[in-house]
Design brief:
Number of strands: 15
Largest sheet: 7 strands, mixed
Radius of gyration: 18 Å
Number of helices: 5
CATH architecture of one domain: Beta Barrel
Low-confidence stretches: 1-6
Strand content: 35-45%
Oligomer: single chain
CATH topology of one domain: Elongation Factor Tu (Ef-tu), domain 3
CATH superfamily of one domain: Translation factors
Structural class: alpha/beta
Mean pLDDT: 92
Helix content: 10-25%
Length: 254
Amino acid sequence: MVVPKQKKLHKAKITEISQVSKTLYYIKFKPESLFESKPGQFVSILCPNHTLRRPFSIASLENNEIGVLFKKKGSGTEYMAGLKIGDTIDFLGALGNGFKFDKDKKSLLIGAGVGVAPVYYLKKEIEKAGGDNRLIVGFMTKDEVPSNMSFDEIATNDGSLGLKGSILDYVEQEIFFYKPDVIYSCGPHIVLKTITEIAQRHSISSFVALEKVMACSIGVCRGCVIKLQKNGTTVNASVCQDGPVFRGDEVLWQ
């Protein structure tokens, strides 16, 4: 695999791993060299007996320790769930383009499912800068909510924790009461599409971190291409290289 010069391969030691909900795991690892990233960027981890690396949004970066939230759903993530403290992993990153924020603007952050990871990281960075933000998240049930993260509001589809229903049911309510200047979100396609539409109705800028199946993670295979509308022209963009963060109103939602 050809790795662009500006990207860097890392070796890292596992410093923490735990199951933080019925469906989610949280892993921390410390690279041997200094690591820098922005919320919305991701790492691509090498899993034994897999040709392609597995991409994961960065959920935290503190004291050069990277945190990743993931759901065990295949052989790659099963390998990760079985890692122990002190084990060494090989990863590529930080990859992609992350969120940009203005600490002087009120930011509404929205995450759904494992998509809470990059907006949780964004929340921490906005807070470090002294900015005003509010993070609301949605899960199917309380058993899926990660125990190691704190949120300003939680919605569960079955009403077992927090508000009852989809997080989408409460976006306009949040806009009415919080009056954000900008909305940042990550989650399934339909969630991001709907949030973008709501933001446009209220003339609020929105930025989305897209969840997309990736193969190479570095823009070579073109397997994660989407279409954007820029200056009246339709263009192709790779989620892994040009994103995963895009302006919501530029994405041509299918």
